[in-house]
Write a structure and sequence with these properties.
The structure is a single chain. With about 300 residues, the chain is α+β, with helices and mostly antiparallel strands. The chain folds into two domains: about 80 residues, Phosphorylase Kinase, domain 1, CATH 3.30.200.20; about 190 residues, Transferase(Phosphotransferase), domain 1. The protein has ten helices and ten strands. Helix 4 packs across helix 10. It is globular.
Length: about 300
């Protein structure tokens, strides 16, 4: 499976012929979900391969969804990071809206964990580092992702990773309230309807790190209410992860945002110290080799 992002939900696609961005020839579809579909295309004038993310036709008819999609494009356009999918252009017409972006050939981390289970600690640390590098660039640009999860991380056959899909991202200091995000990765403050901050992204990245280490999410529930209760009150189950990284997991998943690293850059510095001390300076090379082998399977 390859792609430039995916969604955890599924909604019906709009009826009728599908609108396409002028000037691009479609090659194949990468995937579809609640927000729409992503296709591989080639820019006719230059021959450049790209990924085109189309907003679901039914959603494109809704002003609120179209505005949110436009906001995602503007946020991506303001980021210049080798760890985040790059934006080429945003195209909007009466028939629809699309984001034309860098094509990243890779396996969604969600699929990799489902197929292969735990990645091993060094590979998990490398995934976390790559994600924190991308989130740190976003945080420096004043952007909070708000929906970090394994589906939004692509792992390449070279063993690198890249952050994709800023669908519900917002500016730092955005006072939007209300529950938003993907439930298994939502920080306590999101469950409580408080505004998201960079520390919210740190929580989600640590939950994903936990999942890489164990093959399982830290908290499960038969209902959203039970899942919310576990995220907001249950102790962090750090006994399920390797001893050398338990402190990282406890710190990144602290219940109160002020008790976590304040942003991705701060957590990245902590990760480097812990990884170097626990696994020696060769941990990155070994982790990259492990990720590359998993992505190639």
């Amino acid at each position: 499976m390859t792609g430039s992002g995916s969604s955890d939900a599924t909604l019906p696609q709009g009826p009728g012929p599908e609108w396409t961005v002028p000037g691009y020839t479609h090659i194949r579809e990468l995937g579809s979900g609640g927000g729409g579909r992503v296709v591989v295309a080639v820019h006719d004038a230059t021959g450049q391969p790209v990924a085109v993310k189309y907003l679901n036709e039914a959603l494109a008819a809704d002003d609120a969804f179209r505005t949110a999609f436009r906001t995602e494009a503007h946020l991506l356009g303001g980021l210049r990071s080798p760890h985040v999918t790059g934006l080429y252009e945003y195209v909007e017409a009466p028939e629809g809206a699309a984001i034309v972006m860098e094509l990243v050939e890779g396996v969604p981390l969600r699929a990799l964990i489902r197929q292969e289970g735990p990645t091993g600690p060094e590979a998990a640390l490398l995934v976390l580092k790559g994600s924190l590098l991308g989130l740190a660039d976003a945080h420096r640009a004043g952007v909070v992702h708000r929906d970090y999860k394994p589906a939004n991380v692509l792992v390449t056959e070279e063993g690198s990773s890249k952050l994709v899909d800023f669908g519900i991202a917002g500016r730092g200091g955005d006072r939007r309230t209300g529950v938003s995000g993907t439930p298994p990765y939502m920080a306590p403050e999101q469950w409580n309807g408080a505004p998201a901050t960079p520390a919210t992204d740190v929580y989600a990245a640590t939950v994903t790190f936990f999942e890489c280490l164990t093959g399982e999410k830290p908290f499960a529930g038969e209902s959203l209410m039970e899942l919310a209760l576990r995220h907001t009150t249950d102790p962090v189950p750090d006994e399920r992860v390797p001893q050398p990284v338990r402190g990282l997991v406890r710190h990144g998943m602290a219940k109160a945002p002020e008790e976590r690293p304040r942003d991705a850059a701060a957590f990245l510095r902590e990760l480097e110290e812990v990884a170097g001390r626990a696994y020696d300076p060769g941990w990155e090379e070994r982790g990259r080799g492990r990720l590359a082998s998993l992505a190639a399977l």
